[in-house]
Amino acid sequence: MPSEIELINARMVRQEIESLTELLQDAVDSGASVGFLPPLAAETARQYWLEMAEEVENGSRQLWIARQDEFIVGTVQLSLVTKPNGLHRAEVQRLLVHRRARRRGLGQALMEVLEAWARAHGRTLLVLDTRQGEPSELLYRKIGYQPAGVIPQFCLSETGKLDPTVVYYRILDKL
Ligand SMILES: CC(C)(COP(=O)(O)OP(=O)(O)OC[C@H]1O[C@@H](n2cnc3c(N)ncnc32)[C@H](O)[C@@H]1OP(=O)(O)O)[C@@H](O)C(=O)NCCC(=O)NCCS
Q1: Which tens digits make up the pLDDT trace of 45-57?
Q2: Whose CA is closest to atom 23 on ligand 1?
Q3: Mean pLDDT of 146-168
Q4: Which residues face 165 on adjacent strands?
Q5: Atom 15 of ligand 1: nearest residue by CA position
Q6: What residues does 74 pair with on adjacent strands?
Q7: Is residue 1 predicted with pLDDT exceeding 70?
């Protein structure tokens, strides 16, 4: 069954908070480096989504979800730079696909939808970072992201090690 990808507003983020919480917990439990360490308490995840909803409300963040059979199985966000000299720039954050929906093109499809929005809104420079060696690196490279460099000791892993992160960017063609 193909997924439906939609851009949602702050009210919908709050309305879907339980599904989004489960999705974030699934990613953290799967060992992904997405800001939290396992086990991720539901309350901590909910608090995170409430903070994201505020930024969606004030216009500094765009948030997409992908549904399959009514369940949210994927999400991605774009954090918009609000500084006057960076209005062409945005950061891709929290690309998450539920373990049961991975390797079927959904992560790539979410990125394509996000990039179409970015292009249409003049956000022609996209940046992101991801832990070195993650499957996400293969995805970003496949769709045209360029590595800008590696930052050592960037994030704590569940094993207690400080892992390196790779910073990527992509310049989108203007419409
Ligand atoms: C990274 C993630 C979003 C990928 O989602 P996905 O829907 O499984 O990815 P796709 O099926 O769209 O994969 C697209 C391409 O990425 C690469 N890729 C993705 N996952 C891969 C994996 N586990 N192993 C090898 N290549 C992989 C492949 O090139 C793939 O193309 P192909 O299927 O034609 O070979 C998903 O694994 C995830 O949610 N991980 C946990 C959270 C995370 O790490 N997010 C990134 C934070 S920056």
Answers
A1: 999 999 999 999 9
A2: 135
A3: 97
A4: 131, 151
A5: 139
A6: 66, 97
A7: no
The atom of ligand 1 lying closest to the CA of 130 is: 48
In short, whether 75's Cβ falls inside 6 Å of ligand 1 is: no
pLDDT at 36 over 90: yes
Write down the pTM of the prediction: 0.98
Coil, strand or helix: which one is 22? helix
Domain limits, the chain: 4-127
Q: Which of 37, 75, 94, 138 to mutate to test the pocket of ligand 1 (most atoms within 8 A of CB)?
A: 138
Fold of 4-127: Aminopeptidase (3.40.630)
Residue for token pair 């919908």: 12
Ligand 1 centre and the CA of 41: distance in Å?
A: 25
119 neighbors 172 (Cβ within 8 angstroms): yes
